[in-house]
Amino acid sequence: MQSRFLYLTHTKQLFRNFKMAAFGTVFMPKMALSTFENGQWTDAATVSSDSIQLHPGAHVLHYSSTCFEGLKAFKHQDGSVHVFRMDQNVKRFAQSSNLLHLPQIDQRQVSDMILDIVAQFKDEIPEPPGSMYIRPTHFGTEAAVGKAAAPSASSMLYVLISPVGDYFAGGARPLRILLDETGMRCAPHMGMIKSGGNYASALGPILEAKEQVQADQILFCPNGDVQETGAANFILIDGNEVITKALSSEFLHGVTRDSVLEIAADLGMTVSERDLTVTELLERAAKPNVEAALSGTAAVLTSVGTLIHDGIEYKVGSGEHGPTTQKLRQALNQVQWGQTEDTHNWLTEVK
Ligand SMILES: *Cc1c(COP(=O)(O)O)cnc(C)c1O
């Protein structure tokens, strides 16, 4: 009884601090877990979130057979809780697992695991602009260091959740982005997989860009083709037009990207999904009413104020937060926060 009391006091303390904590560093004490063994998934269980067992020879630790998802649950004014576009994230999770030759996930089971673990911690979901960040994770567990060129026969899948505050607390300034035409974020055939190794692959160049030109991120543009940054999609706004690269297997198909494009269309904007070259980007950026932004679940839409290319800095439009970026972010937040009608059926209520 006493240890349970201490434990609860400890977690309460953590929640009081989550607003100050860095994004994604505070976790709920329990998570949902299932493992794939002998050709089938075990029944999902709620387990302590700081205690998984992994053999040191596990496939993931040697050959990076791992993928994850990132989505959010929001608390509405009436106290109800809703997960945003869960079907899209679960579908992408299944696709990542397939492309990595991990065991096929059971999308129904994973959806239930998400809803179940969020329901258990409903009371701990921060009010908007905060939310509960949900991190499904799947990786190969077979102890077999000889399987460099063979898939893991067993795997583990869990749904970890983390209360998060406003990503913009502290007033985010528009980002400085380095345009990189020679490197790549990851191997092109890995682009649409949300897989751990891709972030390790991009880390070296990103750290170098931070140090050398004080860039916040790199926008990877192999051979002049504007793709995406280390963990967010890129969109250009020119007056009434939104321009972003059409889906290809070389980059991650963001759910936020898709949502922003749908909202832009709803607002009567022209949506152009097509190739964008660095040359065109720099030409358009010089115009006064142009805006650029990064899209992703964590930060929603973040303004890009400066592009750095071949040692020269280019302001995007005014170089400040743009009104259209703000309008699109607000429209998306209003759906997530239950402040406007969910016309696209993007919310799943957690009972
Ligand atoms: C997760 C991610 C995104 C954004 O995807 P969302 O579904 O919008 O969160 C974009 N690019 C990369 C590389 C990512 O990992």
From TrEMBL:
EC class name: transferase
Keywords assigned: Aminotransferase, Pyridoxal phosphate, Transferase
Alphabetical list of InterPro entries matching this protein: Aminotrans_IV, Aminotransferase-like, B_amino_transII, BCAT-like_C, BCAT-like_N, BCAT_family
Catalytic activity: L-isoleucine + 2-oxoglutarate = (S)-3-methyl-2-oxopentanoate + L-glutamate; L-leucine + 2-oxoglutarate = 4-methyl-2-oxopentanoate + L-glutamate; L-valine + 2-oxoglutarate = 3-methyl-2-oxobutanoate + L-glutamate
SUPFAM superfamilies named among the record's database cross-references: D-aminoacid aminotransferase-like PLP-dependent enzymes
EC numbers: 2.6.1.42
GO molecular function: branched-chain-amino-acid transaminase activity
Transferase as UniProt keyword: yes
Cofactor(s) demanded: pyridoxal 5'-phosphate
Pathway: Amino-acid biosynthesis; L-leucine biosynthesis; L-leucine from 3-methyl-2-oxobutanoate: step 4/4; Amino-acid biosynthesis; L-isoleucine biosynthesis; L-isoleucine from 2-oxobutanoate: step 4/4; Amino-acid biosynthesis; L-valine biosynthesis; L-valine from pyruvate: step 4/4
Family, as annotated: Belongs to the class-IV pyridoxal-phosphate-dependent aminotransferase family.
PANTHER family, A to Z: AMINO ACID AMINOTRANSFERASE (PTHR42825), BRANCHED-CHAIN-AMINO-ACID AMINOTRANSFERASE 3, CHLOROPLASTIC-RELATED (PTHR42825:SF2)
Function text: Acts on leucine, isoleucine and valine.
NCBIfam families in the record: ilvE_II, PRK13357.1
Protein name as catalogued: Branched-chain-amino-acid aminotransferase
